[in-house]
């Protein structure tokens, strides 16, 4: 018998149907993948399962009993926990305090039993072979990837029979992602049900026993994983045949140098980086996570202090803050790592987000012209095919892919022609990914210069014209032409690390 | 139109609350709705409204200004001292004191934006320092009476309308333009919503922050001079009441105390609500202690009715019905 049975599940937000008549069934002891583009209804589905929102129609049975959690605590009481992309951790607490938050082991006097907490934390970390985490580390000092791992530990800390992993691998570097996949199999072998969302087909292939496909707010098919081809899956996800994810790589780079970087250093993470980015070029930045990629992008954008020389279009510039980076046609714009924390005003409209960086341009005698603004917003929404009810829809209510498009639109409106894209496809559905790669190519052919970091190595291999591999805050190798492959990137990223 | 209502639900709610309160007050105290009484209510509300103008900008930007009482009080006392009851010195005294208020705002803003001092600490400190300076300056002795021109600005009338109401109207217009029709407004809402996102979007976050405190310093100093005209003289402690009322007016007007939302048009309703309340409560024949308790409780209730959480609850209830 299925552990979870869902029938006719529906959810509306005002006039917007987020989920309609979804069906789902999953057994204990299996890894069940949910596939679908962003906005297809997966997120709503798991939010309902985890008690974060309540459904309006349909039924959920867990163990044959009706299941309708009023909140995540109620879901937890039935043994269901979710690890979300949007991290729920508290920066001021330690790793272990976060893991046991509100479920701390107590002493007789009801105070927190620190010894017991430490013991249980270490036992948990050891049982599941967690990558290096110290229980007493303060969370704010951890990287995004490490936080994601803490989040997973938190989900496992309670008696969880059904664990939902929402894009849990997307923030993880290759080695940790592999660990997570192993962990997922281990949990299934222990008789738990793991519901797994990922936009990486290879991962789904590696671990899923069964999969359910979502499209347009409903479920369209469920398959045994080994009985269906990648092509069939993608076709069912997007409802049409997708020719190819990666656009053809046309060489559009000219001899003109758009961005020249010499000896750029920042703190201990970035020590003397040199490279040149040409007009019309997509230059990839790869390497293991935490080897200076983030610091490089932030330094070029003026978000952290850095020393060294930066030239834009042949002119030396001094970029002390993002405002200076974004100034004028010769500026430099960034799609930041943290979409929700750095990129978007979630509680403001698509329109206000799009025009935030360039709002001055719509003023005449100091007063805003709403017509001018609306016209340009409409143009950008159409150009990027941003799926929003109206430009007044709040950015936080859009799907991940559409949120990312809004950030792209905001960046393009600045008219900067040197673009820094930090992991722009993280947590973005496959359809939008394809659109983003195509957009990058189109922009390159129009003379934009693009610096592109991705935590998903195949993206670098298939999209970038050249790839810089970073190691210990330096450029360890520059790969070109046929030398761009996952093996070469890994080799350059790891070889000396081993020796050291 | 319905989109407008949805977006500005809390502001509309504040005005609805104001009307209800007016009717209730009229019930308890007949004659409250008379022209002369409404006129004096608007005059009193104008002082709260003008102080709360700056406070609105600061709060939308994610800060708070606790220095308004003594910026107001300092401007009042120094004006009285420098003018000595004469109109002529106002020509230079008024610009000087407005500049002084702006300067205090500048200090607050730089402390917050450049040195990262929490707004509560920074503005509380300037407030106390100003209080000390004024005590040293006056030695506690009474000041000369207010110049006639200032009295005209605060209690005079033009064509039946109180001058100060016209001033308030003009300031409301300016504030509305700044918030709704200027790039500064957009930057301000972005700053209050997320300082990080604003910074990453190229918003001049430091300059915007400083400007909100400068505006607050300006309006507090201006209100101080006008209030001197209203009372006929300046006295120690005359600004104390405006700390609470300026913040409460903003909150009643629908702004989130955490920043990023709200509008001065809401604050205007908030100032009216607070002033009508002070008119209603004496009509209930309560002791002055009981008055304060009811006053505080009613404000607490009004603010929570208007707050986002309560509105969210209402939204949830509606969805369940539907």
From TrEMBL, chain B:
<feature type="transmembrane region" description="Helical">
    <location>
        <begin position="120"/>
        <end position="138"/>
    </location>
</feature>
<protein>
    <submittedName>
        <fullName>ABC transporter permease</fullName>
    </submittedName>
</protein>
<feature type="transmembrane region" description="Helical">
    <location>
        <begin position="12"/>
        <end position="35"/>
    </location>
</feature>
<feature type="transmembrane region" description="Helical">
    <location>
        <begin position="90"/>
        <end position="113"/>
    </location>
</feature>
<feature type="transmembrane region" description="Helical">
    <location>
        <begin position="41"/>
        <end position="60"/>
    </location>
</feature>
<feature type="transmembrane region" description="Helical">
    <location>
        <begin position="210"/>
        <end position="229"/>
    </location>
</feature>
<keyword id="KW-1133">Transmembrane helix</keyword>
<feature type="transmembrane region" description="Helical">
    <location>
        <begin position="241"/>
        <end position="258"/>
    </location>
</feature>
<keyword id="KW-1003">Cell membrane</keyword>
<keyword id="KW-0472">Membrane</keyword>
<feature type="transmembrane region" description="Helical">
    <location>
        <begin position="158"/>
        <end position="179"/>
    </location>
</feature>
<feature type="transmembrane region" description="Helical">
    <location>
        <begin position="265"/>
        <end position="284"/>
    </location>
</feature>
<keyword id="KW-0812">Transmembrane</keyword>
<dbReference type="Pfam" id="PF02653">
    <property type="entry name" value="BPD_transp_2"/>
</dbReference>
<feature type="transmembrane region" description="Helical">
    <location>
        <begin position="290"/>
        <end position="313"/>
    </location>
</feature>
<dbReference type="InterPro" id="IPR001851">
    <property type="entry name" value="ABC_transp_permease"/>
</dbReference>
